[in-house]
Amino acid sequence: MGNGLSEQPSFLSNIPFLQAFHIAILGLDSAGKTTVLYRLQFNEFVNTVPTKGFNAEKVKVSLGSRSRTVTFHFWDVGGQEKLRPLWKSYTRCTDGIVFVVDSVDVERMEEAKTELHKIVKTSENQGVPLLVVANKQDLRHALGPAELERSLALKELGPGTPWHLQPTCAIIGDGLKEGLEKLHDMILKRRKALRQQKKKR
Ligand code: G3D
Ligand code: MG
């Protein structure tokens, strides 16, 4: 399995608007990962069933005030406990991680935090931009961004991991585009920094 970039001639990787970005969508089961994916792909709500393995979709999204079309390869990986060891394989060479959280599932917030920190801190994922999707904001009792930032201990991820927390409602699509814009910006910034580091060597 390779990421989109490895299939592209190297000159294309220097032209940001021609690139496809490889993104792993992770999170506990029932957080809303597949709903996020299909909302982005079809621009409508799709009734989901629990994901047994993974869903892979190539999605074109128009981003920014100039409506640039950006292609993302999303890998939506099942979040049940027995599937989580697979997450590592899907984040190998990934450009970004989307971690979806059910903002009302207070009981499993500690578990979500543990899984999030585990995957972000693996050596392959050092510095990979992270979008935390604080989903199900339409529900009463949903935790707000500040509470989620604290509960998930996002500040403890350290300065090496660029992250953004985005409140969303995947059912109607609220917040998803804004979140992707931020992720896209973080990815481009990281690539630029990596290119500059390479030149200095
Ligand atoms: P997963 O892929 O992370 O396992 P799913 O999660 O996308 O299958 O979603 C799990 C359930 O959460 C689904 O409901 C889905 O409709 C619901 N859901 C997803 N996003 C939102 C949201 O923003 N708000 C609300 N209220 N519900 C959401 P069912 O009933 O099919 O289990
Ligand atoms: Mg799913």
Provide a compact summary of the structure.
The protein is 29% helix and 22% strand. The chain has 201 residues and is of the alpha/beta class. The longest helix has 25 residues, at 176-200.
Question: Would you mind describing this structure in some detail?
Answer:
The protein is α/β, with parallel strands linked by helices and 201 residues long. 29% of the residues lie in helices and 22% in strands. It has helices at 33-42, 87-91, 109-120, 145-151, 176-200, and strands spanning 20-26, 54-63, 68-77, 96-102, 130-135, 163-167.
Keywords:
binds guanosine-3'-monophosphate-5'-diphosphate, Rossmann fold, 6 strands, disordered N terminus, alpha/beta, six-stranded mixed β-sheet, binds magnesium ion, 201 residues
Total helical segments: 5
Q: Can you say what the CATH homologous superfamily is? A: P-loop containing nucleotide triphosphate hydrolases
Percentage beta strand? 15-25%
Summing up helix and strand content along with how strands pair, one would put the structural category as alpha/beta
**Helix fraction?**
25-40%
Question: Span from first to last CA?
Answer: 29 Å
What does the secondary structure layout of this molecule look like, with pairings?
Blueprint: E1 20-26, H1 33-42, E2 54-63, E3 68-77, H2 87-91, E4 96-102, H3 109-120, E5 130-135, H4 145-151, E6 163-167, H5 176-200
Parallel strand pairs: 1-3, 1-4, 4-5, 5-6
Antiparallel strand pairs: 2-3
The protein binds guanosine-3'-monophosphate-5'-diphosphate and magnesium ion.
